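Hey everyone, long-time lurker, first post.

I ran two proteins through the pipeline my lab uses and got sequence/structure pairs for each. Pasting them in order. The first:
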Amino acid sequence: MRKRRLALIAVVILAIAGMVWWYVWNKPHRDVSNEKSISIGADSLFARYNSNEADANKQFLDKAISVHGVVQEIITNQQGQPVILFATGDPIAAVSATLRDQPGIQVKNGDRITVKGICSGFASDVVLRECILVTE
């Protein structure tokens, strides 16, 4: 009787874990295009994180933000997505914006642009994800 009860509990726990896994796996990505965002310059955003990361996280982490500035470099990440690095005034640090699917983007080094994305925090660069290019 005790073994049956333990087996039943194990099956229930596995079923719940499976449902949670399925929900997380199929959860849609956040779409920032229709979200209200905080607007800030790339150099100002980097300066805020560089001076006080905890306070900057309170204001920007996991929030939609529009970042404007000068493109320092455009690279491609391991998933093949374009990543725009904004100039910050610091020669070894940048604001990194990973663009989601936007084929045919015509951006080059030195352009002044605005992207809108979700702030993921600070890891030597300020990191933005799920970004879209904003046309003004």
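...and the second, right after it:
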Amino acid sequence: MKIEVLGTGCAKCKSLYEAVKTAVKEKGIEAEIVKVEDIPSIVKYGVMSTPALVIDGKVKFSGKAASPGEIAALL
């Protein structure tokens, strides 16, 4: 599983990245977690509001930071 956190490095983006790490650890699954900060890569997903969460190439949500529990439900 590949999980990407899209964002330019704002506080919400960092919070989402940490929440993803926590959710993956709590679920006990193996996942590659990637932080994507360059704007052209973010735009390729059609995301106009960050942070955004992408799981296996599909945008799950954008424009908010989610809790580890919310993220775990998507995994």
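Reply from user beta_strand_b:
Welcome! Quick read of the second one: The chain has a mean pLDDT of 94. DSSP finds three helices and four strands in the chain.
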